[in-house]
């Protein structure tokens, strides 16, 4: 076997190996992206000009769908709240999309202010409810349902079943060794040299 024939065999083996390995690794490019973070709202809460009682429910609504809840707490003499409004997905189809209008209720009463769903910044919306009537705060012993997004799925960088980068490198190494070994054996066989 001449050096030229050996190179042709080695090139064919390399092309074959790449043709098998590339589709296996292509699935890694389609790995699932982590979910978008929620839109966080925070601010003060007053009812009839007075701080809302601690534990008063605050609900964020997008097109009438409850998309985030929290309760008031007292800090430095002011009633405050924080809540996360999740992104719309298959489990919460009516919730947040960038730029969506967000309305609020405080203790079941509509707040005068609205917000805009943006998950790339802290949205400060100080809420006020007109009137002198103070809604009954939620009891401290009854937990208020809070929509809290789970941690993002960071994934492994490979789609399921696509194999890992290490297995691709190992497979390529095995193919290269096999091709090189076959060429070496062919060159070393008695009578295989032409001269």
Architecture overview:
The chain is α+β, with helices and mostly antiparallel strands and 195 residues long. The protein has two domains: 3-31 and 163-188; 39-129, Immunoglobulins (Immunoglobulin-like), CATH 2.60.40.10. The chain has helices at residues 3-26, 165-188; strands at 39-47, 50-51, 57-62, 65-71, 73-75, 78-85, 101-106, 109-116, 122-124, 127-129. Strands 1, 2, 5, 6, 9 and 10 form a six-stranded mixed beta sheet that branches. A four-stranded antiparallel beta sheet has the order 4-3-7-8, with no helix packed on it. Helix 1 packs antiparallel against helix 2. It is rod-shaped, with a radius of gyration of 32 Å. The model is unreliable at 139-144 (pLDDT under 50).
Write a concise synopsis of the structure shown.
With 195 residues, the protein is an alpha+beta fold. The protein is built from two helices and ten strands; from the N terminus they run H-E-E-E-E-E-E-E-E-E-E-H.
Return the domain count.
2
Whole-number mean pLDDT: 78
Summarize the helix and strand pattern as letters. Answer: HEEEEEEEEEEH
How widely separated are the two ends?
10 Å
Q: So, the CATH homologous superfamily of the largest domain? A: Immunoglobulins
The name of the CATH topology of the largest domain is Immunoglobulin-like
The value of Rg in angstroms is 32 Å
As residue ranges, the low-confidence spans are: 139-144
Q: Characterize the main sheet.
A: 6 strands, mixed
């Amino acid at each position: 076997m001449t050096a030229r024939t050996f190179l042709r065999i080695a090139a064919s083996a390399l092309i074959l190996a790449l043709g098998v390995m590339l589709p296996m690794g292509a699935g890694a490019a389609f790995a699932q992206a982590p979910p978008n973070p929620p839109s966080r709202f925070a601010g003060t809460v007053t009812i009839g000009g007075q701080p809302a009682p601690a534990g008063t429910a605050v609900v964020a609504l997008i097109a009438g769908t409850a998309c985030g809840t929290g309760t008031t707490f007292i800090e430095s003499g002011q009633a405050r709240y924080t809540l996360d409004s999740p992104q719309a997905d298959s489990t919460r189809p009516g919730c947040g999309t960038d730029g969506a209008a967000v309305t609020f209720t405080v203790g079941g009463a509509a707040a005068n202010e609205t917000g805009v769903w943006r998950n790339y910044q802290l949205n400060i919306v100080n809420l006020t409810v007109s009137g002198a009537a103070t809604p009954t705060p939620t009891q401290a012993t009854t937990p208020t349902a809070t929509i809290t997004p789970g941690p993002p799925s960071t994934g492994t960088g490979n789609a399921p079943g696509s194999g890992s980068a290490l297995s691709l490198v190992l497979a390529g190494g095995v193919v290269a060794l096999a091709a090189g070994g076959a060429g070496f054996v062919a060159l070393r066989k008695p009578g295989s040299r032409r001269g």
